[in-house]
Design brief:
By secondary structure, the chain is α+β, with helices and mostly antiparallel strands. It contains 5 helices and 8 strands; from the N terminus they run ββαααβββαβαββ. It has a single domain, classed as 3-Layer(aba) Sandwich (Aminopeptidase), CATH 3.40.630.30. It has an 8-stranded mixed sheet. The protein is globular.
């Protein structure tokens, strides 16, 4: 697939574009996204295009990374997003991921997240990656632990969020 940042056994991880607005509209309005990540106020295709322009696409230009689209390599169908976010209130980069309901539980978040962490360590040379997660999101916490994240001694800015951190192994 053209524009791939990385491919894994089953997945293509690529930059999101305004053409991905229908996918974004569906993903960010999924009840679990709203519950665990938050309401992004995206209600129309135009809102989704603005979300893409002002979020992931702006982050690619500003930071060299952002939330990337995760697609099935065999079909090109977008199933989720996974990537790295730079939040002003934190010194370290944050990993983020979200998948449509029909793609949860198939190991795709682990497969794409592992690739994102390899990019963080090997391409971007990050010394630490953090994760912000709702304490009620047991599936996400379990995934972070599987990646090798540990709960941070630091408190998250938001009291409804728990902070985890990951430090890559030395080469």
């Amino acid at each position: 697939m053209n524009g791939a940042l990385v491919t894994t056994e089953r997945l293509t991880i690529r930059k999101l574009t305004p053409a991905d607005a229908p996918f974004i509209l569906r993903l960010v309005n999924d009840p679990d996204f709203l519950r665990y990540i938050g309401d992004r106020g995206v209600r129309t295709l135009e809102d989704a295009e603005a979300y893409l322009r002002n979020g992931p696409i702006a982050s690619y230009e500003r930071n060299g990374h952002g939330l990337w689209g995760v697609a099935l390599t065999a079909t090109g169908e977008l199933m989720g997003m996974s990537g790295l976010l730079k939040r002003e209130e934190y010194a370290d980069v944050d990993i983020g991921y979200a998948f449509l309901p029909e793609f949860r539980g198939g190991g795709y978040a682990f497969e794409s997240g592992s690739a994102v962490l390899r990019i963080a360590a090997e391409v971007l040379a990050l010394r630490k990656v953090i994760a912000l997660v709702s304490p009620a999101n047991a599936a996400s916490i379990g995934l972070l632990i599987k990646f090798g994240f540990t709960r941070s001694a630091m408190e998250a800015e938001d009291s409804n969020t728990v902070l985890y951190e990951w430090v890559p192994s030395p080469p």
